[in-house]
Design goal:
Elements: H1 4-13, H2 15-47, E1 57-63, H3 71-83, E2 88-94, E3 104-109, E4 118-124, H4 129-133, E5 137-140, E6 149-151, E7 161-165, H5 166-173, E8 184-187, E9 190-198, E10 214-217, E11 219-221, E12 225-232, H6 237-248, E13 256-261, H7 262-269, H8 271-305, H9 307-315, H10 320-357, H11 364-390, H12 394-398
Parallel strand pairs: 4-10, 6-11, 7-9
Antiparallel strand pairs: 1-12, 1-13, 2-12, 3-4, 3-8, 5-9, 7-10, 8-9
Helix pairs in contact: 2-8, 2-10, 2-11, 8-11, 10-11
């Protein structure tokens, strides 16, 4: 560490270039850490499991082209015929589709006539809806046949028994979430009994802060527009979809509003997040390249300015390794100062993002690994200029004195 004091003296005599280097590192670190956190946070949102059998679930949005009095019987007839198709495991009807933007949200409270405790998504369907989605029941029991109801719309007002997701149960009862089974909770101030807990299921809006809060009710809605959820056997989606559309369109007046596999639903739901994540990774790559070139250029320029000093040190017996070590250590000192400033700036920027956009703050681990990455980037960028400096001949260098 005998080079440390000469390095500090050298930096003091070249404070302009040193400050430029430090602020370049600080700005790079600040942007780098926050950009990586935002990009990975979006990737985590995209990759989080939906709770569905994603490879085998599809939905068809269509109408019930009969008189209002006959819509309930037409709904049941459609479901019976869809279940009879080859390759169909389960078929059900739902008031919405996870991550599609089509669904309802409701207010949840644990006490009557009180302010809501949280929000939740809501899906109403028949007794097969849970299995048609491919979701897993982890506590309690399935709905009894007597709990199933058929209404025209707003089934959440009529439900008696419900299932809720584990995430919602934890929000209401924290660590004792299993105790929610058998309890009565209040949906829009209406009492409903929780009979089961679903491991995971997502609401209709992928960017919603409580996207994993979902209530499932055995209430079919025989409205003018319905969503048929079909879970197929593996590798049978295309054939089942073709047969289902063929059956549904055979009825006069039937209109198919939309149909998608759940993989398509999820891809569309997260298309903006995926594009933003890719853009951020592109920005990160470009930033690292520009910073590396900047460090390289500044290091090269700084070394050229000190050709006399290098020549003198070489003439006094300094080895090539000592010359390389000097500039590598100098680079590390400058990067360390820049990183300290960058950490402060990154914390301030992260807190600003958190307040403005309801994002989480950057964890300390990102600061640690960001520091290592920045130090490594600086060391890689300075190696070639330092190596070229060590190759200077003492005789050639001292001729400029």
């Amino acid at each position: 560490m005998k080079d440390f004091l000469p390095i500090l003296k050298s930096l003091k005599s070249n404070y302009g270039a040193s400050l430029l280097f430090i602020f370049q590192v600080a700005i790079t670190f600040t942007i780098l850490v926050n950009a990586i956190y935002l990009a990975l946070d979006k990737r985590e949102s995209i990759a989080r499991p939906s709770g569905l059998d994603e490879q085998n679930v599809l939905y068809i949005a269509t109408n019930l082209p009969v008189e209002e009095a006959s819509q309930a019987s037409q709904l049941d007839q459609d479901l019976d015929n869809l279940r009879a198709l080859p390759g169909v495991e389960y078929a059900s009807v739902s008031s919405g589709v996870p991550l599609s933007g089509w669904g309802r949200f409701i207010e949840i409270a644990t006490k009557p006539d009180s302010k809501y405790d949280t929000f939740s998504g809501y899906y109403g369907g028949d007794l097969n809806l849970l299995k048609a989605l491919g979701a897993e029941l982890i506590a309690g029991a399935e709905f009894s046949p007597s709990a199933e109801l058929t209404v025209r719309t707003d089934g959440y007002r009529d439900a008696i028994d419900i299932m809720i997701t584990k995430s919602l149960a934890q929000s209401l009862y924290s660590e004792q979430w299993e105790q929610v089974v058998g309890k009565t909770i209040y949906i829009n101030n209406k009492p409903q009994r929780v009979v089961g807990v679903i491991d995971r299921l997502q609401a209709a809006w992928p960017t919603w802060v409580v996207v994993e809060h979902v209530v499932l009710a055995p209430v079919k809605e025989a409205d003018s527009m319905v969503y048929y959820i079909i879970r197929t056997q593996p590798n049978q989606q295309s054939a089942v979809l073709e047969q289902a559309l063929s059956y549904l369109t055979a009825l006069h007046g039937r209109k198919i509003d939309k149909y998608e596999t759940f993989e398509q639903v999820k891809a569309n739901a997260y298309s903006a997040e995926n594009a933003a994540s890719n853009t951020l990774f592109g920005v990160i790559g470009g930033l690292l390249l520009v910073t590396a070139l900047g460090i390289f250029g500044q290091s090269r320029y700084s070394i050229i300015k000190r050709t006399k000093l290098i020549g003198i040190r070489r003439a006094m017996g300094a080895s090539k390794g000592q010359i390389v070590r000097y500039f590598v250590l100098e680079n590390a000192v400058l990067c360390a100062i820049g990183i300290v400033i960058g950490i402060i700036a990154a914390i301030v920027l992260s807190n600003a993002f958190s307040s403005a956009f309801e994002l989480g703050t950057v964890p300390p681990s990102y600061m640690f690994f960001g520091s290592l990455c920045t130090i490594l980037l600086g060391q890689v960028a300075v190696l070639y200029p330092a190596f070229k400096a060590s190759q200077l001949s003492p005789a050639i260098a001292t001729r400029t004195v």
